[in-house]
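Page header: ASSEMBLY MODEL / four components / 306 residues total.
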Amino acid sequence: MKSFIGTFVNKIDAKGRISVPAPFRAVLQAKNLSGVACYPALTGPCIEGCGLDRIEAMVETLPDQPIPGLDEDAIAHLIFASARELPFDGGGRIVLPAEFLKKAALSDHGAFVGKGRTFQIWNPSDLEQAQAEMFERAMAERQAMIEARKESG
Amino acid sequence: MKSFIGTFVNKIDAKGRISVPAPFRAVLQAKNLSGVACYPALTGPCIEGCGLDRIEAMVETLPDQPIPGLDEDAIAHLIFASARELPFDGGGRIVLPAEFLKKAALSDHGAFVGKGRTFQIWNPSDLEQAQAEMFERAMAERQAMIEARKESG
DNA sequence: TATAGTCCCATTGACGCCCATATAATCCCA
DNA sequence: TGGGATTATATGGGCGTCAATGGGACTATA
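Prediction written out in full:
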């Protein structure tokens, strides 16, 4: 199973269109999908994307009671509500709806970031900053681990 | 199987008509349905909708003879009693009956919210508020999950 | 005849589809 | 190995179609 790997920065044109990186398209084409499903990430100022199959799989996991739930899975419902199916145009682009542009503070460029089974779309400068912070945190954790080992060992 | 995904806000005109979003119509057309089945949601101030096929599936699950005192049965009958079949007009619109307008506090605009196998129709501002609450709940759940993992791990 | 419901047609504005170009990557053959 | 040819990708722009919406005509019912 191919997965979403790497970071690619592409341009957003006046119509809100952006090319999905060819390697990402290849992942989706392998599943016979001709578009992506996107939704605002719950964890940061970015858009999360995946194949529509992944969303359908989420639907399957919901109880099939004809009697209206009990909204037991708030996250799933939030995702359904805020997700959009974005089909490719002839050139492999998608159109980012206004809500998404706003949510991720996207204007002229968007960075596609592979996350394995999913990917994210970031404002390139926000991404850089977020990654710097992640690096700091990782280094701090590593340092803490070394200290802990020193004590116990 | 396609499912109802995304949120779309459309206008309600003086005749109580509202366009069903094209993506939702596509889901129904795939089942050869030319209308929707709607009923007041039991869980909130909104209208719930689905294909007529789903209502028929509900009928199948009901026992021939209502079992006195069984909640499920009472709920199902409530839904049947208040459900309406709303056919599309030539432009893909439905007419919202007065009871539904009242139940969901609908006036000038209605928000169609995809829920996977079903969808809901909300007053847009009520929806925003309900989603904010749902978001809070989702974040709390998520936090609880993280804590639990920390302990066990 | 009034009122409500249904059907049909018109408008407009957005979106999908298509084609065109440029840059980059790959391949092929000398 | 180098140069040219071919393909693929990323991007720009135009045009036609369809979706969303407004409004009028027709029918049925009381």
